[in-house]
Design a protein that fits this description.
The structure holds two protein chains of two kinds. By secondary structure, chain A is an alpha/beta fold. Chain A contains ten helices and ten strands. In chain A, the strands form two sheets. A six-stranded mixed β-sheet of chain A has the order 6-7-8-3-9-10, with helices on both faces. In chain A, strands 2-1-4-5 form a four-stranded antiparallel β-sheet, covered by helices on one side. In chain A, β4 and β5 form a beta hairpin. The longest helix of chain B is centred in the N-terminal third of the chain and has 35 residues. In chain B, α9 runs parallel beside α10. Classes of the chains: A alpha/beta, B mainly alpha. Chains A and B meet through α2, α4 and α5 of A and α4, α8 and α9 of B.
Chain lengths: ~280, ~325
């Protein structure tokens, strides 16, 4: 059963910028898909279309059996959105709200309006328990009552992921979920996504800039280039695919030195940790 | 324009660039428009024209006849009238002015807030006509323009005129003042609330909508928490304005300090005027202090006060039941 069906999807913004230019792809239930592509390739546009925040200017788009086009009413859209969770790249948490209330935002579509407004003032024990569980999944349980703005950027991103966990969605859309998260927690979060996918059958579609992570965690890789699909296949076959050539990168030259073990972030780690990671990767190969 | 030279693929320090700068296209560059000079000239003209029309000049301040009048006026202001009878009257009137301004402001919030919500533009493609349906879309924008029209009218007509109109409806006295303040301030607060809520980061609004939130939930989970200090500041400032306005309203017999201020002025009882002005000053300062207190209270809470943990809640998951969810 396919959860996302996209055919000839086109999105041209009112100012003429081309977001997507005829994308065709199908994602089945229970898949774990990684999307790669340089900045401006249309990844975020795709996520915003899947979430119903943007409407296509051409082509077909079907998410969880629901046709998404300009004619979908607000009521149906809200119902659909309770079934899919989106973690965006930035601007994910309301800074002046507590972490607890930020997590409860994930459930807004599932509880009555009156109940949800009451939870701003007096969250019930059930709601606190639920938020605490979600927060523990991203290893931040002691921050339940902090203001979101008092947390670091990476921690805020993890709160956003906790919000998506609390939502209990069938489809998780994550737009660069680990962009501002430290290496250790990035691994933990992707492990969490994998468990979500394997144990609960949640379909995960995420956009990663870290090729290494994408190859390790996703069983299917999509590469977007200038709003079109440039690669669709297994991470193993990606090795034969000239990804740097295909990426529509503004850096017009090949970097002269290879990043450390294909993994620029490794530069942030200590020598021993890098050594261990390299050994692990060699063992895996 | 980018200077074209033979070395456009190197920086001035000699670093090699990945691109040839002479071949880079730079769309979107805006050139200076000479029509801007015309606008600047028009602004200068309007300022000059206004100064001319309102007879702005420095000479009247140095006119000896005027200076004599000023001397008499200033000398008359001191000492202030501190007789017990007058002070008790001033106290009564001060309390009345305070009461008018409080009720006027509260009613203005009650009226202005919903109108402000109607007069707020909701952004996002999901708000388009196709998405919400033509009927609802027309209703929404109809209400939008109606609310704007009401707010503009309420704002355009000054309190003093509203007071004169209110006197026709409810008769002389402080209630007419309350009505006048309510209508005018609702116009101002409604407009301010609309602008403030519109200016909220759209991506945060989308975060709440994206989780299935409706517009009311978006208001309470994104728009209000993100703007609370500003909302509070403007509302408190409006209260302060209303305090002064309530005084002026007294001039047209709509109650408060102003009615006595007019009587004292007309009877050239300047010591009384001084006392009344001091009372007004004290009142406005007190409002300012109250506002500061409230703002600090909201901004400085380290945690959301209402969400203080009750440790007993969190250790007994077995007791977690849905029946706890009161709604």
């Amino acid at each position: 059963m396919s959860i996302v069906r996209v055919e000839g999807l086109r999105k041209i913004y009112p100012n003429g910028t081309v977001g997507l230019d005829g994308l065709t792809v199908e994602i089945g239930s229970g898949e774990m898909v990684g999307i790669l592509g340089s900045s401006g390739a249309g990844k975020t546009t795709l996520f915003r279309l899947l979430n119903g925040t943007l409407y296509p200017t051409g082509g077909q788009l079907e998410v969880l059996g629901q046709r998404l086009d300009g004619r979908l009413g607000r009521g149906d859209l809200r119902k659909l959105r309770t079934r899919l969770a989106l973690v965006s790249q930035h601007h994910n948490v309301i800074p002046s709200l507590s972490v607890l209330n930020n997590i409860l935002i994930g459930r807004l579509g599932q509880v009555g309006t009156a109940r949800s407004l009451l939870s701003l003032v007096r969250p019930s024990q059930h709601e606190r328990q639920l938020a605490l569980e979600a927060l523990a999944l991203v290893s931040l349980p002691d921050r339940l009552y902090h203001r979101a703005e008092d947390l670091s950027g990476g921690q805020q991103q993890r709160v956003a992921i906790a919000r998506a966990m609390a939502q209990g969605a069938e489809l998780l859309l994550a737009d660069e979920p680990i962009a501002s998260v430290d290496m250790r927690n990035a691994g933990l979060l992707l492990d969490l996504f994998r468990r979500l996918n394997e144990e609960l059958g949640v379909t995960v579609v995420m956009n990663l800039h870290q090729l290494d992570f994408a190859v390790r965690y996703c069983r299917r890789i999509l590469v977007l280039k200038a709003g079109r699909l440039a690669y669709d296949g297994s991470p193993e076959d990606l090795q034969d695919f000239d990804i740097y050539g295909e990426l529509d990168s503004p850096a017009l030259e090949e970097p002269s030195a290879e990043p450390l073990e294909d993994w620029p972030e490794a530069a942030l780690l200590g020598e021993a940790e890098v050594g261990e990671l390299v050994r692990k990767r060699k063992d895996a190969n | 324009m980018i200077e074209s030279s033979s070395k456009t693929n190197r920086t001035r320090q000699g670093l090699r660039l990945p691109v040839d700068l002479s071949k880079v296209e730079l769309p979107g560059q805006r050139n200076f428009r000479y029509s801007n000079l015309f606008i600047l000239g028009a602004v200068v003209f309007v300022v000059w024209y206004s100064a001319n029309g309102s007879k702005v000049a420095i000479e009247p301040f140095f006119d000896t006849r005027n200076q004599k009048q000023v001397g008499l006026f200033v000398a008359g202001l001191f000492p202030p009238d501190l007789s017990p009878e007058f002070l008790s009257l001033v106290w009564q009137l001060t309390v009345e002015t305070f009461q008018i301004s409080v009720i006027g402001t509260v009613l203005a919030i009650v009226l202005g807030f919903p109108l402000g919500l109607l007069a707020m533009r909701q952004r996002g493609e999901e708000m388009s006509r196709e998405a919400v349906g033509t009927g609802r879309w027309l209703t929404r924008w109809g209400l939008y323009y109606l609310a704007r029209l009401f707010l503009n009218t309420a704002r355009a007509v000054p309190e003093l005129i509203w007071a004169l109109i209110a006197i026709i409806f409810v008769g002389l006295g402080s209630f007419a003042g309350v009505v006048a303040l309510t209508v005018h301030s609702a116009g101002i607060l409604g407009k301010l609330y609309a602008e403030i809520f519109e200016a909220v980061d759209q991506r945060l609004v989308e975060t709440v909508r994206g989780a299935g939130g409706n517009e009311l939930q978006t208001l309470f989970f994104a728009r209000i928490p993100l703007t609370l200090p500003v909302l509070l500041s403007y509302t408190m400032f409006r209260w302060e304005c209303n305090m002064r306005a309530a005084t002026v309203l007294g001039f047209v017999a709509a109650g408060g300090l102003g009615s006595q201020l007019r009587v004292s002025m007309n009877t050239y009882n300047y010591p009384q005027v001084t006392t009344l002005v001091i009372a007004l000053l004290v009142l406005v300062t007190l409002v300012d202090l109250a506002g500061q207190f409230l703002r600090r209270r909201i901004l400085d809470v380290p945690e959301v006060a209402a969400c203080r943990p009750d440790p007993a809640d969190l250790v007994a998951p077995s007791e977690t039941k849905r029946s706890n969810t009161r709604s």
